[in-house]
Amino acid sequence: MEGGVAERKLISRNFDRPESWTLAAYEESGGYRAMRKAFAMEPAAVVEEVKRSGIRGRGGAGFPMGVKWGFVPRETDKPKYLCVNADEGEPGTFKDRYILERDPHMMLEGIIICCWAVGIHKAFIYIRGEFWSQEERLRRAVDEAYAKGYLGSDINGKGFDLEIVIHKGAGAYICGEETGLIESLEGKVGKPRIKPPFPALVGAFDCPTVVNNVETLAALPWILENGGAAYAAIGTEKSTGTKLWAVSGHVERPGVYELEMGVPLRVLLEDHAGGVRGGKPLKAVIPGGSSVPVLTAEEALACNLDYESLQAAGSMLGSGAMIVMDEDTCMVWALLILEKFYAHESCGQCTPCREGTEWMHRLVGRIERGEGTAEDLAKLEYVADTIGGTTICVLSDAAAMPAASFIKKFRGEFEEHIRLGRCPRRGERWTAALERAH
Amino acid sequence: AQEELGFISKEALEYVADLVGVPYSKAYSVVSFYTMFRPRPVGRYVISVCANISCSLMGADSVLDHLRRRLGIDVGRTTPDGLFTLETVECLACCDGAPAIQVNRETHFNVTPDSLEQLLQRLRSEAQSPARKPV
Q: In chain A, what residues touch B97 (CB-CB under 8 Å)?
């Protein structure tokens, strides 16, 4: 890598070590020291340290972790729970998978620290059903932790008990939504709940519940060992620390790269991911997982990777999943894939989402197949403009943002499909293939 | 139930609903909500092709085309010999290895026509061996 900014490996430091997922390897590299340090502190002091770090939820919402923990009542008659969100389902995202495969103990240590800080004695790891081999690795890590006395009864020598339960999902994106996850954990259909009340007060089994993402928890050992202030000194003022970026699509080197917040997008794309594959011109980038607005090549190459910069650029950091598209990509075709996804994954509770996602799917489909009219495009824009902010959860917004941004930035392609009655780029062969696929 | 029978039969679902103490309709709503629950019999090998954005950018369409032709079935169908069911799925979080597929519990990254051929051959000969493969 010439010039540019190197990776800053806080969470990913062990990823390439042999047998990195074993307890032995983790402890050899300094693992579980942070847990012991946390146990020597008052729980409230641990919460303060996390607040000081400024770390924000890495699942996609970006809500400050310490603040979320602070919402959980310290004194309560009810048991408190942690739900670890390992349901990684945002298209383009695979960074949690890397943690589960390559360093599950770092996440476990983070879980223990969280539970100590908040006063939780039972943690559920909700892992998506498709993660078969990852669940095996996780199970082995949990067994190792129990055998070593890091989980179970009296793990700190002063009576602190912690039990971990691994719960498998069964193929539903909406179960990555924190309340959808809780509903699913309770054995029901994963339909999100209206908030407030927030899970911190009324969560799993009606008890105060913290829901945290895998990556956010995995950051805790470093934060405890080095201090919240040290974490906050990395990155930018409001986007502290590092982020695991999952890069995919038309790049030379797809994979996970850990960078300080604030690094230029160009550095991730070109220096780390090797640039657009085959040296082709860049066309578009979705910077934060499929649910965030798309950026044109020009916009992408001008922005930095932190919450504020991406928002200022008209998009969002989201889950930190960068999807790269080269000049041969038909943007109407790409949008159809996304809208089919949201229509499929809508849980169906709320009319604007249930009907709106299906409408958008069909309208983009008509346009993509060359059967669309100008009225269809107007209707598509109208639906995208209307359904956000009207529903129990943000799946409607997630479906609307791609549609609105693709049309705004690549309007010409939609109009061309309508005018020509076919896809100018991919032709009839591709359109037919897509039709059969759906 | 699904692991034992290969799918969740009506009788199995009735049994579970009764055991848990919920109406059949509620149990059925749960089964129909989650894509990994199978209310109908499937082949010995379920080939799940990710058709989401990154895999599509890397040629998922071609993967599907290839499998349709080689297996002689359409998406959602099972081969007459009961060996293969072909389905599309949403993002598997394997985008670094796009196009990616899952066959039962195994994930396959960066699939190509050649690697698919080898895979199908391996599965076919595995199916002929007397040892029973878990679902």
A: 254
Closest CB to B93: pick one of A93, A247, A254. Answer: A93
Task: Decide: A309 and A344 in contact? Cβ < 8 Å.
Answer: no
Quick check: B64 and A129 CB within 8 A?
Answer: no
B4-40: b (≥16 Cβ within 10 Å) or e: eeebbbeebbeebbeeeebeeeebbebbebbbbbbee
B91 touches chain A (CB under 8 A): yes
> Scanning the structure block, which residue is given the tokens 């990776």?
A7
Strand partners, B101: B49, B108
Tell me whether residues A341 and B97 touch, CB distance under 8 A: no
> Does the beta-carbon distance from B93 to A131 stay under 8 Å?
yes
Q: Are A19 and A25 in contact (CB under 8 A)?
A: yes
Look up residue A272 and give its DSSP letter.
Answer: I
Check CB contact of B88 with chain A, cutoff 8 Å.
Answer: yes
Q: List the single residue in A91, A170, A286 with the smallest CB-CB distance to B34.
A: A170
Question: Is there a contact between B51 and A437 if contact means CB atoms under 8 Å apart?
Answer: yes
- The structure's pTM equals 0.96
Print pLDDT tens along chain B (135 aa): 888 888 999 999 999 999 999 999 999 999 999 999 999 999 999 999 999 999 999 999 999 999 999 999 999 999 999 999 999 999 999 999 999 999 999 999 999 999 999 999 999 999 998 765 554
Looking at this predicted complex, what is its ipTM? 0.95
With tokens 């000049």, the residue in question is A327
Q: Do A92 and B95 touch (CB under 8 A)?
A: yes
**Residue A58 in contact with residue A243, Cβ under 8 Å?**
yes
User: Quick one: tokens of B83?
Assistant: 């060996």
CA distances from B9 to A405, A421, B40, B42, B48 (A): 44, 45, 7, 11, 21
Cα–chain-centroid distance for residue B59? 19
